[in-house]
Amino acid sequence: MSTTDTPVDNGVNVAALLGAREAFTAAPEAAQFKWRANCTWRKGTHSSSTVDRFFGLGEEQQHRQTYTFDADHPEIFASEDNGATPVEFVLVALASCLTAGVAAVAQNREIQLRSVSATLEGDMDVSGILGIDSDIRNGFSGIKVTYDIDADASPDDIKALVAQSQKRSAVYDIITNPTNVTVEVR
Amino acid sequence: MSTTDTPVDNGVNVAALLGAREAFTAAPEAAQFKWRANCTWRKGTHSSSTVDRFFGLGEEQQHRQTYTFDADHPEIFASEDNGATPVEFVLVALASCLTAGVAAVAQNREIQLRSVSATLEGDMDVSGILGIDSDIRNGFSGIKVTYDIDADASPDDIKALVAQSQKRSAVYDIITNPTNVTVEVR
Predict the structure, then answer these.
(1) Is the pLDDT of residue B39 over 80?
(2) Which of A71, A88, A176, B94 has the most CB within a 10 Å radius?
C-alpha cells in the first residue's frame, strides 16, 4: 500500500454519476431505460446480433457505433464455431458488469486501481440441453468469478470494492435472481 | 406452406446431436462442461473479455480462435462507449441461444427455415444500479423477445418451434431462474 500525490483517477466520472443520481431522483421517468438487441439467424446454430439503439433519459439514444456479435456452437457439437457460445456471452456480460462496477466504486472511494482482471467459469451438465435428463437444468449449475486486483488499498478494502460492485451489478442480479422473459412470434 | 423435393437443411447436424445424446447417456461424465471467460479492465467502465478455452468431453477444448469483446457504458453515463453495455450482452446471449435452438428444433422436425430474426427489449429502471431506490432491482424488470420466422410450416408449428427452443435453452434458463454466483478475490 502506498500513497500518491496525484489524485485518484480510474477513468470514471463519479461527479457525473452522482449528478445523474440527483437528476433521476428529481425526474424518475428519465431513469426508465430500454436496452435492445436484434438477432439474425445465419445457418445452423450461427447467428449475428447487433446492438445499436436504446431508450433512456426520456428519448431514443444511440451507441457511437453498431456493435455486432456472432454466436455459434463449437465444432465438438457438430457446429462451425463461428463465434462464442451463447452461454459464454453470459459470462462476458457478468465479467464486464462487475469490472465496471469495481472501477466506479474504487473511484468513489478514492482507491487508485492499477490492474483488474477476472477469470470466470460456469459449470454445465449438457445432459440438460440435450434432453437426456429432465432433472438437470439447462443453464449453469453455478458460476465462479475470481478477481486479481492490484490497487492502492488493503486486501480488505479491495474485497469490499468487489462486494459493493456485486451489490449494484445489473448482470449479477439478472443471473442470481429470476427475470421474466416473454417470447412471441409475430 | 409448400412442400419441396429437396431434403430439409437448416445447417444443423441433428444426427450428430442425437449421437452425442447417446454417447452422453452411456458416459455421463463427458457431459460435464466448464465454460470460461477472462476479463481485463481497461479504463473507467471499459473492459475487454476473451473467450477461448473450455472443458468438455472429459478434456480441455479450444475454440477455433479467441473471441474478444469490449464492453463499456454509453456516453450519457459519462463513459466512452467503447463497446456494448454488459446488459446488452445478456440480450445477445438470450437471442443467440433461442435462435440456435429454433434452427436445431426445426431441423429435427424437418421444417425448412427461410429466415429467422428476433428483436429483444429489456426494461430497466436505472434507479436500481444508481442506488436511488433499494426497492428497485438492478437488473431488467422484464425482457420481451419477438420473433419473425419465415419457414415451410404453419403458424402453429412455428410457434411450437420457438416454445421447444425456450424449453431447451441454457440462457433462457439462466435468466428466468436463479443461478448461484460465487465471487472471490485472489
Answers:
(1) yes
(2) B94
Longest dimension (CA), chain B: 61
- Taking the Cβ of residue A166 and every Cβ of chain B, the question of whether any pair is shorter than 8 Å is answered with yes
Whether residue A170 and residue B87 make contact (CB cut-off 8 A), yes or no, is yes
Q: Which amino acid is at B82?
A: N
| Four-CA torsion A19, A21, A26, A29, nearest 10 degrees | 120
Contact B86, B63 (CB under 8 A): no
Interface test with B, best of A181, A182, A184, A186 (most B CBs within 10 A): A181
Q: Give pLDDT tens digits for A12-41.
A: 988 888 888 888 888 889 999 999 999 999
pLDDT number for residue B4 = 52
A31 to B95: CB separation less than 8 angstroms, yes or no: no
* pTM, entire model: 0.96
What three-state secondary structure class fits B31? Answer: helix
Pull the grid cell for residue A175: 443471473
